[in-house]
Amino acid sequence: MQAWGAPSIPAGSARLLQRADAELVAAQFSHEAWERYSHAHLAAVRAGAALVAARGRPTGRRAPTTVWDMLDVVAPEFVRWSSFFAEGAGLRSAIEAGRFELVSVERAERALCAAEDFVDAVASSLSAATDTGDGPASSRVASRGLALRAS
Can you give the pTM of this predicted structure? Predict the structure, then answer.
């Protein structure tokens, strides 16, 4: 697991990245494809939430409600990732409903590899933004009390 508590990453985002890492570890040790897929997707959701928490949740009457839709607004450079994981949200919901047979070993492995890359990309983005002074202060992020709905 990475040490996401570095001072350059806001505290709330660091906690979400730690949870993403824990999901990645669970995915890597899962013996069932459906379980691997589910953990990988949850890791991505938590990483996306970390980026949204750091950059600020979109507001307004028609503000997006899923992590992936919020990510498209606050981090458009991650649209390829948000599209990939948003497309997999239905499959994760089916898994949660007990439809384990829907996930192939290959699909689970692709999701895990993508989640690992996405978590790393989010961490790099957060570190780079705060190292250059472009990121928000962690106290502002923590005080917002962001509650994100996983897709």
Answer: 0.80
